[in-house]
Amino acid sequence: MVSAPPAVQAPFSVPARARAGKRLSIVAPCFNEQEVLDLFFARIEEELAKLGLDYEIVCVNDGSRDHTLAVLLAHHQRNPRIKVINLARNFGKETALSAGLDVTTGDMVVPIDVDLQDPPELIGQFVEAWEAGADVAYGVRVDRRADTPLKRFTAQGFYRAFNRLSDVDLPYNAGDFRLMDKRVVEVLRKLPERNRFMKGLFAWVGFRQEAIPYARPERAAGTSSWRYWKLWNFALDGITSFSTAPIRVWSYVGLIAGVLAVGVAGLLVLRTLLFGRDVPGYPSLMVVILMSFGLQMLAIGSLGEYVARIYQEVKGRPLYVVMDRYGFDDAPPFAGGPVA
């Protein structure tokens, strides 16, 4: 059991908002989710009907290889407020989420996973926090028993490492599930980076934020596409996107190694002068050489991670390519995303 972090309070009084006449946009990235979509729409439409808000549900098909697109289109025909963006290939969840945020028109926007591990019933509490003055109301998973012990352990380790290395304070156990005021979304749309770590970007923009605790349930159907290798790369992208510590640390490692090398060299010279003989030590010499080589490779690897991200950014390619759009009045764009 993990305790929820305290809500971020505004330093001054905030006038209350009214939901009357407002619109709520739901953004749902989808990748091979055909088994759970019927359950998802049944629950979220039931919840949205209680809120007294106009709404739209923007579903982004991120290159699914099953019948996800066909199921989405069937629901679009049933309910025109369900809109579908069909990307030309799989660009990844972070990019699919950005594609959905780019087309929302609501006064409030809620990113949500369709596997129902983000319970739609929490949206009502998000809206209440928005009415009270919060610009962002984010869900905090205080009970993650649905996840494996290894996943809980690695997730906790990532949050600790990220907050130690980065200047951005990432709330513990907070995912993408949140409500954002439209002005927060407008800022997110202007961020130009191609390597997007959305949890970090949500925290980076600031504004008045409030934490809403909830218990994370199991997936309603289907299987997760997130494997540990993919999660590792995701964590690496997050840290390198918001911290230069992994590359800066090698300056200190080099300084310490240089001081040690000078010290050892002085001892060897002194011993030779005093005892008049060389110091034998082929094995120890090889250990030092191999250790130095390993450290150099780690340093080059860290540098390479940042150079690779620079390479991705300077090419200036769009974040995503849209193949089809359903439920939108304008013609479908070929490509989208912020341009530097």
Automatic annotation (TrEMBL):
<protein>
    <submittedName>
        <fullName>Glycosyl transferase family 2</fullName>
    </submittedName>
</protein>
<dbReference type="InterPro" id="IPR029044">
    <property type="entry name" value="Nucleotide-diphossugar_trans"/>
</dbReference>
<feature type="transmembrane region" description="Helical">
    <location>
        <begin position="282"/>
        <end position="303"/>
    </location>
</feature>
<feature type="domain" description="Glycosyltransferase 2-like">
    <location>
        <begin position="25"/>
        <end position="187"/>
    </location>
</feature>
<dbReference type="Pfam" id="PF00535">
    <property type="entry name" value="Glycos_transf_2"/>
</dbReference>
<keyword id="KW-0808">Transferase</keyword>
<dbReference type="InterPro" id="IPR050256">
    <property type="entry name" value="Glycosyltransferase_2"/>
</dbReference>
<comment type="similarity">
    <text>Belongs to the glycosyltransferase 2 family. GtrB subfamily.</text>
</comment>
<keyword id="KW-1003">Cell membrane</keyword>
<dbReference type="GO" id="GO:0016757">
    <property type="term" value="F:glycosyltransferase activity"/>
</dbReference>
<dbReference type="GO" id="GO:0005886">
    <property type="term" value="C:plasma membrane"/>
</dbReference>
<keyword id="KW-0812">Transmembrane</keyword>
<keyword id="KW-0328">Glycosyltransferase</keyword>
<feature type="transmembrane region" description="Helical">
    <location>
        <begin position="249"/>
        <end position="270"/>
    </location>
</feature>
<keyword id="KW-0472">Membrane</keyword>
<dbReference type="InterPro" id="IPR001173">
    <property type="entry name" value="Glyco_trans_2-like"/>
</dbReference>
<keyword id="KW-1133">Transmembrane helix</keyword>
